Prior knowledge:
A: 153 residues, mainly alpha, Serine Threonine Protein Phosphatase 5, Tetratricopeptide repeat, globular, B: 6 domains, 5-stranded mixed beta sheet
Amino acid sequence: MTFKTRWGGIVLGILLFSACRPAILAPPPVLEPPPEERKAPPPDAVPPEAVQNELSRRAQVAAALTDQGRQLLEAGRVDQAIRIFEQALSQSAYYGPGYYYLAESWLQKDNGIQARAFHEQAALYLNDQSAWRERLNRQQKRIEQTISRRSLP
Amino acid sequence: MLINFRKYRSVLLILLALLLVAVGASGLYGWHLYHEVEQRFSGRRWSIPSQIFSDALLLYPGMRIHRPSFSNKLHRLGYRPVKHVPRTRGEMRSTGTAVELFLHDLQLPDDRREGFAVRLRFDRQALVALTRIPSGAPLALVTLEPEQLGFFFGPEREKRELIAIDQLPPWLTGAVLTAEDSRFFEHFGLDWRGIGRAFLANLRSGSIRQGGSTITQQLAKNFFLTSDRTLARKWKEMLLALVIEWRYEKTTILEMYLNEIYLGQNGSVSINGIGEASRFYFGKPARDVTIAEAATLAGLIKSPNTYSPYVDPDRCRQRRDGILGVMHRHGLISAEDYDSARRADVQPAGFTPHPNAASYFVDYISGQLSELYAPEDLASLGLSIYTTLDTQVQEAAETALEKGLARIEAGMPGAVDPAAPREPLQGAVIVMKPQTGAVLAMVGGRDYRLSQFNRVVQARRQAGSTFKVFTYLAALDTHTPISALSNRARTYTVNGKPWQPRNDSALDTPVISLREALAKSVNRATVDLAMQVGMEKVVQTAELFGFSTPLEPYPSLSLGAVDVAPIELARAYCVFPAAGLLPVPIGLRDVYDENSQPLERRHMQVRRIIPPNRAFLMTSLLRSAVLQGTARGLADWGIHFPVAGKTGTTNNSRDAWFVGYTPDILILVWVGYDSGASIHASGAGAALPIWAELARAIPHQITGGDFGIPPGIEERIICSRDGFADFGGTCPETMPEWFLEKNVPEDSALFYHPDSVFKRLMQKFKGTVDDF
Lengths: 153, 772
């Protein structure tokens, strides 16, 4: 092995090591606190699966409440329905149907601006669900009609 | 005889004339009284104080509950411990892992149900099962009634729950009639036997000791007369009784009497009427009282504070048994019922002091109500006022604040300003639902009895670093979290004078990433960013959040040199977890009249002020403050669920802030002196521990879930060193970073691609060979 070949091999080795190092030695994302700051979770820390259970149970509660509110809305009891939808959102902050029906309620109250705010929020959480997309589109049109009608002199 | 007649004729005529005059005068006076009675009884008969309620609590299997505070809540709601399986409303039994309740009736205007027995089974802090007793049928959802927070009393300070006589059990009316007027249905307002008996008794004693009053007379006295013991007053009472009997049915008179009578005292508030007394003494509606309880209540009428079961149970029992005996003799109850009732213990529900909870919050609501109703209407119309308050959160907030302030004063050397030792350290806490704007708790100061100044609403305090978020938000059009900011000392000219921002802690690096600058609350870098963005834009951005205080475009504004109301700051921060919606804080929800008809309804109101992706990016930046920045101490306080937040400390440590939020809830804590003296502690040292203690005590409000990522956000894995991108190709650390879709940096070399190691290797090799 010549001098050049031997040094070439060493350089290549170093380069290989340095280039690969991030992939091999990369620590977990630094969004985690540094090791010395990490503390063992206390006994009452909630494990991730429990969090998921809690979220899904809250979503179930929100769904039940939303169903209740929907029936009130169909019966024309709009204010009571709104109160129930608000309760649903208190249980599950990202519960899209709750926002959708809030928008419906405000449409029934002929308040397009408020309906639009809730519609946008519903779209945020429901737009990836094909079953909801068409309904959201229709709702948006009704909201725009309400707003333009009310803005007429 | 004729002569005699003539002799006395003039006398007789005079007597006749006098008689006619007397009859005429009595008739006229009776007519006057009739109108007086008519006027008094045809309108509102009683002043019913309006009541203010908390929010109801939804219980469902799987929810997490802080059991000590839940237990306190049940106590406040009047659930009383028993040793048997709960059989009647308000009974409660604890059996280690379970709590059994016989629920009170739910009487919300929009939600009514009868009380029933339930079993709540717990596993540590989780409610794992909710079942009916005795069937064991699972329940999906149970609403626990709202708590009374307070009353709007008039000057008479009377509390009364009106009842309808047809809803009362016969033994209750029977007991009252037995005790007070057993011939009520036989006389016409005056009972001559009773009057005769009283007359003889008074003659024997030589003074007026007994009145022999019927129930109608008592009613007349209570409504129209004073309690003076004079013949004139007695005469008027009798006339009034006759008028009332002539005008009204017997059952109506009895119903008015049952609603009117004075039956005891709860502190400074008098308990009036059989309905209120049933609640006060036995924790149940009047329709549910037993025979023994009915006799006890009837026995109280004679002298409520002498025969009160709270004052003298033995005397109360003697009086009760006496009434039971008469009821039995009159055939109102059977021998079996009589024996059973006599054997029953005198068991009052437990003396619960008059509620005086959440005083600052109640003041906040009162302020809003005063725009709708006159004080005398609130004191008399019997309105039911429903609010958003969560009493468990309120209790946790009050406890955490008090403990935190005491800890600062006692445990932190130099925390208490020696120059102002007589002034109590103050604090304020507000807890909100970001998506709805509902105010769940409000503590406007350390002790309401000492200071009613509501620091959450009325105070204007310098925001300090909590205000920096608006500069960073304003920069998101042009900057990314990895944008480099200058941390070098620099002098700015403000109003012709030099001004040099200083960092609170030593940070040598001359350049710092935007993310790290906010996380570590670096003043110089923040001012540098504000200058790059332009102060006008910073002001415009902050103004979107609806602050009521004027915002001037001085560079120091970017560091929070502006006074804000804590509630406005809390509201502003709600925008980030609420995906860009600015809510209107809502504490007052519904007002109903005494017939459950809605008078006022307030719904959540929101307004979009920033797009969801920007809101998320701000949350992401504020997550770094909690994980790596000034708020990283949260983990030491046992907070291990996702939180985003910002500390704040103003010049000379006059104010210490922490505003933190999860996807579910937002909590703002402020600590400081009213005078503006230094507390010698930072937001992280003084306000953050209070936040943490509070958050840990309200598991039913915090899911522990992470923040959702909206559309319009791009994630890249970047190489990082010192918090921002490294272009050198060597990558000691990687981190995910979030960008707005529209301004993901175009230079792909910026990002770390694990799958391009070979490409980078070849580039490096080529460079090395070239150097060689």
